[in-house]
Amino acid sequence: MNRVDKIRFILLYGKALEAPDYGYMELDADGHMVALYNRNGEELDMYGGHEFVRVRTLGQFDNEDRDHFYDLLESDGVG
Predict the structure, then answer these.
(1) Neighbour tally for 11: CB within 10 Å
(2) Could you tell me the residue range of the domain that residue 27 belongs to?
(3) 15-27: strand order across its sheet
(4) Are strands 43-44 and 15-27 parallel, antiparallel or unpaired?
(5) H or E stretch including 72?
(6) What pLDDT is attached to residue 20?
(7) How much is the pTM?
(8) Angle at Cα 34 formed by Cα 51 and Cα 62, nearest 5°?
(9) What are the pLDDT digits (tens) for 37-74?
(10) Total domain count, the chain
C-alpha cells in the first residue's frame, strides 16, 4: 500500500517562500518517496531543490487502483 502525506514547503525550486505553501508526497510501501505534488495536485520534479516538512498522513491506497489516491487529495480540498 502506498501512502500520501501532506507537506509544507520550506524551499520550492531552491527559493525560500514568503507565505506557507503546501503540497503532497507519495511514498511506496517501503516508505520511499515516489513523487511530489503541489497544492493543486500537479506533479513536481523531485530533484528541483525542494525542502519540506511533513504535516500529516492523508491515507493509504493501493497502487493498482489510483482512484483512491485522487480521493485522498480531494478530501484535502484539491480539485
Answers:
(1) 13
(2) 2-75
(3) 43-44, 33-37, 15-27, 2-12, 51-61
(4) unpaired
(5) helix 67-75
(6) 93
(7) 0.91
(8) 135
(9) 999 999 999 999 999 999 999 999 998 888 899 999 99
(10) 1
Going through the chain in order, the beta strands assigned E by DSSP cover 2-12, 15-27, 33-37, 43-44, 51-61
Q: Is the pLDDT of residue 79 over 90?
A: no
* C-alpha to C-alpha distances, 61 to 16, 19, 44, 47, nearest whole angstrom: 32, 30, 20, 24
SS3 70: helix
Which residues have CB under 8 Å from 67's CB, separation 6+?
Answer: none
What is the residue type of 12? L
